[in-house]
């Protein structure tokens, strides 16, 4: 997992400009030194190491939030010591967590938000695990009531799911049944769904914002396909919506789109507070339509303020600060503020996709009209001496991180690039990016022979 660094045998050295008389200026890399050092010394060494990371504002690969108000930064520092699991010591933070998922239940049209149940998590990956666990446990309870075996559960998903669902199926012994995407069916849309479900299916996952491309999967259309399956076979299956990104975009930009608890088969929804919830990493949320959809035997109970607080999580100790930051954003922005921020990001995504789509070498896969994310590939039918991996490398020379990766199973011959537009990526930055992008494309198009020894970089899993 770790490549040998030729500097591993060397220590860390402090620049002489920061040293004081008699102060030690070299530190071992992998052992704890015996002596203390001054706080300024420790700070400078860590600061200089972290400075070598990329500039997060220029990272067009990640979905994760990289900018918040100065007031949010102050609140973050003030609450950095709060432990979300310790609801007895931090009962008001626990109460704010409760308010946040109630806000989300209302935003996602739960029939009765007061009867919903939800929790914060460390991110969407944990939230997905909890949603999947609830599906599996409900299926197990139903099977046992009817005297049926519970040893072969399966979960139906798109082949374009995020890696956390592969982990869920691996860790909890659930067979993953991937419905392949194709040129004709670019997302899971209910096509041929009957071929993948059976009596051992615990549920179907629908994605609001596919990681590869940002496209929404049509939850209502998937539900209608399941209605037909129910009518024909008696199988009555629930949907978990992985709304890591789209669950905090669709309510504001596509309010007429039925993807949430307005669709009766949707049992649970997760989102990333640290993606389009506009909070620093890491916080996620998962909400169930009603409390009875979260099996009681998965819930642990603690008391706070003399009352009862149900908890359901994989992690134990975890930061409470990001929960407070999420509530800050709900108070700070309100519905209209979220709509303005997400709308501005989508406008920039549409602008960039339109401009990139005008360039002869490229063909858009989608345009960023769902979440502010879009992908493109090289246009076929024209011989070139370069590929998208080399374009990524050229853009990185100017600080821009633009991922290049193959599409999922059955489309792996297609390589795409993708841009994620987030809050903090302004129109001015977009113009600067376009200038660098066109310059690098022009350079690559001018090549009369291939560049030597291209080394494709691995795909992104944000």
UniProtKB/TrEMBL annotation:
Gene3D superfamilies: 3.90.1150.160, 4.10.280.50, Type I PLP-dependent aspartate aminotransferase-like (Major domain). Keywords: Decarboxylase, Lyase, Pyridoxal phosphate. Pfam families: Pyridoxal_deC. Its EC number is 4.1.1.15. One of its GO terms (molecular function) is glutamate decarboxylase activity. It is an enzyme of class 4 (lyase). It catalyses: L-glutamate + H(+) = 4-aminobutanoate + CO2. InterPro entries: Glutamate_decarboxylase, PyrdxlP-dep_de-COase, PyrdxlP-dep_Trfase, PyrdxlP-dep_Trfase_major. Belongs to the group II decarboxylase family. PANTHER family: GLUTAMATE DECARBOXYLASE. This is Glutamate decarboxylase. It comes from Arthrobacter russicus. The lineage of its organism: Bacteria, Bacillati, Actinomycetota, Actinomycetes, Micrococcales.
